[in-house]
Design goal:
Length: about 160
């Protein structure tokens, strides 16, 4: 509910002029609402489970680059096969496999005309964002789940 800033009368949400006193009303900026919603969305989107404390500093330092590889397509095979003894690398390998599965679904979708192209394009944008987030988490030495898909466990 809005009120006129000069006479205090109740006015319609979208009114540009107060119907009682005729004063011009400041319309709430839609842009800032949208901006707030986007900011909330991004905050919620990236606010995922963080279990960094469960890994040793030594493991994180030694296996960061393995963790980064986990997000780069089929290269998840490198940490999967070569860093079996690193809980930190395995955490990220699991995240990378999840990402790879969703990327594969996106590629498969593009084989279906129209609806599949659109879905595939959306999935591609989504997975590209997750790839960047995953790589940044790995570089920062954090064990943080990818948004939306990261809660699933394929390997332990
Ligand atoms: Zn008024």
């Amino acid at each position: 509910m809005r009120y006129c800033s000069s006479c205090g009368n109740r006015i319609d949400e979208n009114a540009r002029v107060c119907p009682v006193c005729g004063a011009k009303t400041e319309k709430k900026s839609d842009k800032s609402d949208v901006q707030n919603k986007i900011e909330d969305f991004i905050t919620n989107f990236t606010n995922t489970a963080d279990t960094t404390a469960q890994y040793t500093a030594d493991d994180i330092t030694k296996n960061k680059s393995m963790a980064v590889l986990a997000y780069l397509g089929l290269l998840f095979l490198v940490p999967l096969l070569a860093a079996k003894e690193s809980p930190f690398a395995r955490y990220h390998t699991n995240q990378g496999i999840l990402l790879f599965i969703v990327q594969t679904i996106g590629v498969a979708a593009t084989q279906i005309p129209y609806a599949g192209w659109a879905a595939g394009a959306l999935i591609n944008v989504f997975t590209t964002a997750l790839l960047v987030i995953g790589v940044l988490n790995a570089i920062k030495g954090e064990a943080k789940e990818l948004p939306i898909i990261g809660k699933f466990r394929i390997i332990s």
